[in-house]
């Protein structure tokens, strides 16, 4: 009899779940710097101004040291805030499976999932393109420079296209694994960080893993746009809504990493000059760039259009605002076909792991 009672108590303990938090829970990938860090800042500022609408922030990062520093910096700015660190590598499906299992044990719902982490790889900088673009299309030079030559054919250890894994598939797997937690929140939102340079012309449906094309970054960002829209056909019935945003042109560490410190500073000066001359895409700072993410996270659902991409823009002297526009040449059948390919890919990985 005692043994049976002991077993019963153990079973009840295993089944015990964390009680639902009074705060909304926002999971942000790539949160230790750039747009992800600024999204966290905006939500914490929102919490400080709206005591009845507070957020618990989950900093989704690959590097624990950088994540800890980000958390410390946020707590200095917003003391007593609810900030947790969750470690995940979005380029690794195995890492995401493990991450999601841990997350389900600790939290009972997720209100906001920011699919923000990503990479823009560079082989070298073609300096000859600068003067050519300056003369032929100066606006394009400061919004969609072609001087950063991207690698073609890079694969992860799991055999996926590197840019595809980091920018698209890792988040898609995460959504798939966390769907019940999103549904538990009621009116949860998935918010993808795309790019103002994402266009249909950069996308090849056959090369959906972005392995062969010359612009894997732009291609991957267009795919996030169409995936974001298509997911609604499956998730809206569970009160989960998917949207896509872009931060404009932000001088994050992507620029300095590829061009070097000095050229990064010079590029920044160029961005500010372009803004003063009227290029509204030159948001420059991550705080400005994150504005569209914040708008989509906090506006009433009925005010948002799933077929539109929400972008951050600035006036010449820095005032930030947002605009929304239709996803470039969205094709529903093509998008749903892509979702089927990604679902099949998930099944392959589930068999392995």
UniProtKB/TrEMBL annotation:
Gene Ontology cellular-component terms listed: endoplasmic reticulum membrane
GO MF entry, a single one: 3-beta-hydroxysteroid 3-dehydrogenase (NADP+) activity
Keywords linked to the UniProt accession: Membrane, Transmembrane, Transmembrane helix
A single BP term in Gene Ontology: sterol metabolic process
Disordered: annotated span: 1-22
Transmembrane segments: 112-130
Domain of life, per lineage: Eukaryota
Skewed-composition ranges (Basic residues): 1-16
Annotated SUPFAM superfamilies: NAD(P)-binding Rossmann-fold domains
Keyword field contains Transmembrane: yes
Protein name per its UniProtKB record: 3-keto-steroid reductase
Provenance organism: Diversispora epigaea
Lineage summary: Eukaryota, Fungi, Fungi incertae sedis, Mucoromycota, Glomeromycotina
